[in-house]
Amino acid sequence: METIASFGEFALIARLAQGITASAQRTDIAVGIGDDCAVLDLGSELLLLATTDSQVEGVHFTLSTATTEQIGRKALAVNLSDIAAMGGTPRYALVSLILPASTSLATLDGVYAGLRQEAECYATALVGGNIASAGTQLVIDITLLGAIERGHVLTRSGARPGDILCVTGTLGASAGGLQTLLQPDLPYAAQALEYVRMCHCTPQPRVQEGRVLSWFGPTVVTALLDISDGLSGDLAHLCESSNVGVRLESATIPLSPELCSIAKCIAHDPLDWALHGGEDYELLFSVAPDYVSSVIDAVQAATGTPVTQIGTICAAHDGLMLFGLDGGVAPLRVKSWDHLR
What we know:
single chain; 341 residues; CATH 3.30.1330.10; Phosphoribosyl-aminoimidazole Synthetase, Chain A, domain 2; 2 domains; 25% strand
């Protein structure tokens, strides 16, 4: 019997979506399954954004490697990042908890303290949810609603050959932080250790950066998503949705000094974490070539977040190509997080 593990996450999503394509033809569904959020048209000047995500103990976090406040903050942050990936503003969150019977009240209080902290940072209201008791793993499932102006939705499906590929911030630090938790006894530099663990345990969703990008609209910022599964995997999703290829430049992928310090201590290539590590929650986007400087300057001026050009969109038949540090060219190896494998 074929199982979900043998099927894989994204093939399973495609299979499940086949049965509900009829509803996707409704005129009030502007964007359905397949992007970071659903976009729903209720007839006003603002469109409704809807997303949901889960954090599962032993899969996404452990109570021994993160504080309960950090767990709560990250559970909301990953949903906030989906709203950012459409260019929207977060509004309302509903929180469902699956609690083992042994869950302490102190654990629950800490998780909710983190949820409230993150919600306050992004003007998001916690408006309801559900509680059930089952199993041995704590599960936090959040549905987040947001809004965006009509005509300013940014999806992952509009990239065109000749567009320039850009990314906010730096990549790989979350994966580096995870490795320090798995290998805690190495002599890491204290500042670098603090930085990469912060990136892993309390990622910063790029909501304001997404808002700036949305100001330009989809004819300028032609495709956008957040990097949750890893640069290689999420770039592959962008290219598949837009029916394009890409020329990715290894030399320009932004790596922080802190990540490089950690990688040196572990004897690991930091570029591998940047390409395949995941959970960076930076924004990956394509820009019409005549507007690259304007877009980068606007994001950096409004938020202080650096933006780096890392490649060029090309025709689909050119494939996904990685230009190496040594000048060599090879197909990009897509290796990123799959929840079912």
